[in-house]
What we know:
Elements: H1 3-17, H2 24-38, E1 49-54, E2 64-71, E3 74-81, H3 91-102, E4 108-112, E5 116-120, E6 135-138, H4 144-151, H5 160-185, H6 189-198, H7 206-221, H8 225-228, E7 236-237, E8 246-247, E9 265-268, H9 278-281, E10 288-291, H10 296-307, H11 309-325, E11 328-331, E12 339-345, E13 352-359, E14 363-366, H12 368-371, H13 380-390, E15 408-410, H14 417-436
Parallel strand pairs: 3-4
Antiparallel strand pairs: 1-2, 2-3, 4-5, 5-6, 7-8, 9-10, 11-12, 12-13, 13-14, 14-15
Helix pairs in contact: 1-2, 6-7, 10-11, 11-14
Amino acid sequence: xxxxxxxxxxxxxxxxxxxxxxxxxxxxxxxxxxxxxxxxxxxxxxxxxxxxxxxxxxxxxxxxxxxxxxxxxxxxxxxxxxxxxxxxxxxxxxxxxxxxxxxxxxxxxxxxxxxxxxxxxxxxxxxxxxxxxxxxxxxxxxxxxxxxxxxxxxxxxxxxxxxxxxxxxxxxxxxxxxxxxxxxxxxxxxxxxxxxxxxxxxxxxxxxxxxxxxxxxxxxxxxxxxxxxxxxxxxxxxxxxxxxxxxxxxxxxxxxxxxxxxxxxxxxxxxxxxxxxxxxxxxxxxxxxxxxxxxxxxxxxxxxxxxxxxxxxxxxxxxxxxxxxxxxxxxxxxxxxxxxxxxxxxxxxxxxxxxxxxxxxxxxxxxxxxxxxxxxxxxxxxxxxxxxxxxxxxxxxxxxxxxxxxxxxxxxxxxxxxxxxxxxxxxxxxxxxxxxx
Length: 437
């Protein structure tokens, strides 16, 4: 079994079992040990891996790091583990790892909760661990460029000089990509002013500044994905250019177009709509793709086939509520999966936000990545508030690292009247905040 296959299997295991992990020790055994093994190290050989490695610091005796990966009798990589859900960037966690790093010969330190990983070295000052990681990723959403970097840590390829050299380049590359990605979601005043000067607007008014801000966000969102982020290791299904891309561990089965209602048709699609003006969204753009036209009947038919009548009953109640509460209810053009979008417009009726989306595979996507464009939800604390409100639904567990993304949960989580009423109440509140502007 090759490295890629081992990582894929581990990712699937995490997806299926993370809700059952309740302790740090369970995290180590279920997630971290298999990751170290995937890198090619014999986790049962103390010459290659030492659990509870002693790293005495000054007067602090008996301090132990969870794992030390060994080579020629010396630690080459320290790994400190936390439980899933623990915020890895907390200062206390970093300070603990910095202490361990400073008293060993290892030049690589890893902080993980079994899902998220942070890799550190000493680029800024010799023998002093950097405050920021040179490599950070989630095993549930891993990119090809990250996989390439991970290959360097395999037992048969481990070369500390090459790793540190690559880390220096990666550090700045990732910082630039993170900055551009953040600006594509919520452009800062300085960035908007810079763009304004570059396009010949030296002293923009506040209204023009807002127009440039919105245009910047849309323009960067329309760049090819490879220009701001790399392709995923796992299969990414982009059903509609108007919808967020979502990552799955396996391809969605392709429905057989046996019914005339499900036959593919050639239609012209807008390039981007989830934060476009309504008028622009309704205009046909140049790009032509062969996609499927969906309506309520075909959506229900596909949902019935995928998830059965129980999910259909829930979906029909949600669609009825959408029609009574949305500013727009629209159907996606996914080739394999149907979608219905709950759209809300801001106070001047220019920008539409699809704040949640139903999928005929039997899921609901909560579009934090769309509502972040609304004035009220640009404040991170407001998005955290939204997260907490949605998480009141039994079986839904959105995490803080997802509040700028498009987290998904199964539609059956809304099968009880209580859960459905919470769902309706939350998105009534979201709609009200967006409309106020």
